[in-house]
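Sequence, please.
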């Protein structure tokens, strides 16, 4: 906990870090409390609804450190289903204002609200009736007074020892931007499937793959009827090379599994290879639905010390997924 007593003396650098965290925490608490202010909460709601019903894009802009935060907010909005684009204020007056259409909304991030580079964007919005929202710490600034929607951040101390470097103020900008994006995610009902559409590559995309994306189906699925012999089951295991076979009934419903481990137990237990697999199979084997995350399949396999799972829907066998399938896909 920030501000808690420490059992041992801290160094000067650690003390500085703790001071930064404490001041930042105070700033976040002030932002949290700001939502208890009805005018602020109402403005936030107005902005969320404006963006939700927007036919165009959110054009996010900011200069300096605020510009870096604006880029991050743009990326978060875009990756969670809200079309957004970053507009660099220094390039706006050199032709890039043309990217703003009358269907867009301009979201301006500025601590002081007086950056000279923002003036052409403000003038353009006013001239052509573009909706402009401003996130700023100065309610009486030029950017604030020009805004159609104003989110006035609380006045906070910067964590910098000389209280000049944007630190706490930019953290609040970032957190409020995240709060805006997440409110839109909630309003849109944005799902993990939607998220995967925008993140098909890399480890993040892999974590959102479904079992149905990786499972083997059709003739690749090892299976025998419950009346099959142990020899038949062993032959099927050898053919498919999954280390086991599903055991099904007349309706192709999964009733059990016969694995390498079951085969070893059969041999040591004196079972005959002519015996019925139903007597030696594992009943109620580990299984998973096709719509579940592949990462969940891997978790269950690891938790139960197995390397394969059968994929079942409404009791019927659909496929099989192996631990190697998930690892090859980058899930770990």
């Amino acid at each position: 906990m920030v501000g808690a007593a420490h059992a041992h003396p801290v160094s000067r650098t650690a003390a500085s870090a703790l001071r930064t965290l404490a001041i930042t925490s105070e700033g976040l608490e002030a932002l949290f409390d700001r939502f208890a202010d009805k005018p602020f909460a109402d403005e936030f709601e107005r902005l969320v609804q404006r963006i939700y019903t927007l036919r165009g894009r959110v054009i996010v802009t900011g200069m300096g450190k605020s510009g870096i935060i604006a880029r991050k907010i743009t990326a978060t909005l875009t990756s969670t289903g809200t079309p957004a684009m970053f507009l660099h204020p220094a390039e706006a007056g050199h032709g890039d204002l043309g990217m703003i259409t009358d269907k867009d909304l301009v979201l301006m991030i500025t601590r002081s609200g007086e950056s000279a580079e923002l003036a052409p964007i403000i003038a353009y919005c006013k001239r052509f009736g573009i909706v402009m929202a401003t996130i700023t710490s100065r309610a009486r600034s030029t950017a604030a007074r020009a805004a159609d929607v104003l989110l006035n951040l609380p006045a906070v101390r910067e964590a910098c020892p000389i209280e000049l470097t944007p630190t706490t103020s930019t953290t609040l900008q970032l957190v409020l931007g995240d709060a805006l994006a997440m409110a839109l995610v909630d309003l849109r009902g944005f799902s993990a499937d939607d998220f995967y559409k925008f993140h098909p590559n890399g480890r993040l995309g892999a974590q959102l793959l479904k079992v149905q994306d990786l499972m083997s189906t059709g003739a690749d699925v090892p299976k025998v009827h419950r009346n099959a012999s142990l020899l038949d089951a062993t032959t099927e295991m050898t053919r498919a090379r999954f280390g086991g076979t599903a055991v099904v009934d007349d309706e192709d419903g999964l009733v059990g599994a016969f694995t390498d481990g079951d085969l070893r137990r059969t041999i040591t237990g004196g079972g005959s290879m002519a015996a019925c697999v139903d007597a030696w199979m594992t009943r109620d084997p580990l299984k998973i639905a096709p719509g579940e995350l592949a990462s969940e399949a891997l978790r269950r396999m690891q938790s139960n010390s197995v390397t394969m799972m059968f994929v079942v829907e409404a009791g019927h066998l659909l496929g099989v997924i192996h631990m190697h399938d998930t690892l090859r896909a980058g899930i770990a």
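The longest strand covers residues 316-322.
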